[in-house]
Amino acid sequence: MKGALKKWTAKKWTAKRWTAKRWTLILLGAGAVLLVPWMVVLALTLPGSTEVQHWSLAWIGLDALIATGCAATALLGLRADPRARLTAAATAAMAVLDAWFDITTSQSGSDLAQALACAVAETVLAGVCVVLALSEPQKAAAHKGVAATKSSPSP
Question: In terms of residue numbers, what domain contains 87?
Answer without folding.
Answer: 55-136
